[in-house]
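Our consortium's second objective concerns turning raw sequence data into structural hypotheses that experimental partners can test. To show how far this objective has progressed, the report includes one record in full. It was chosen at random from the queue rather than selected for favorable results. The single chain below, 223 residues long, was entered without modification.
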Amino acid sequence: MKMEVFHRHSWDVDLGEAIRIQNELSRYAKIKDEVGKIERIAGIGIGFSLSKNKIIVSAVEFSYPDLEILNRSFEKSNLDFPYVSGFFAFSAGPSILSIFERSGLPDLVIFPGRGIAHLRRIGLATHMGILLNIPTIACSRTPLWNDYKEPEKEKGSYTIYRKNKEKIGAVLRSRDNTKPIFITPGHKITTESSIGIILKCCTKHRLPEPIRRAHILAKRYTG
């Protein structure tokens, strides 16, 4: 799929302008299922070389549901917007757009970090989902909430996390008797559908293959 950016904005901004952009873009977030047939699914990996002020972004694309690798891409560029919690997209966004401009868009992308589980409901997965106008999911190894409820020990067990009665994510057991992972919808998908796709992408490991392989690729070029 050819990439076309919706709601394009500047990346060369200060924190105040970044907040304004987030507040404006967050109005476009859709947490409902607009996921068509998924044949290509990609994961994003991100690494930093702070001593050289560089950011490394990788994308690994798979067939779905067979999970055969179709394409690997990466980009190493200057870290023009220093990493600040809550503003991940402003550090990684330009490289992500550059990668998909070259490779074309998959049907769905899994991102590290957050989706709507964010102070302004626009973590990396939501931000990029809106710009790319495709379904996105966020998946994290580390807890996104301090007061979450542990799921049962069996693979596929999960608990829903709510804020102000809204479902904003899930705590998911992706393998038997392992630590859970934390899932939040990004754009054009619900929490329940996100869980189903992530589980299909978890084979032998705790993390879904697309972001696990993308993380390995990014780490290879960090340094």
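The partners drew two points from this record. Helices lie at 15-25, 88-103, 124-132, 191-201, 209-220. The first strand starts at residue 40 and ends at 49. Both points have been shared with the crystallography group to help prioritize constructs.
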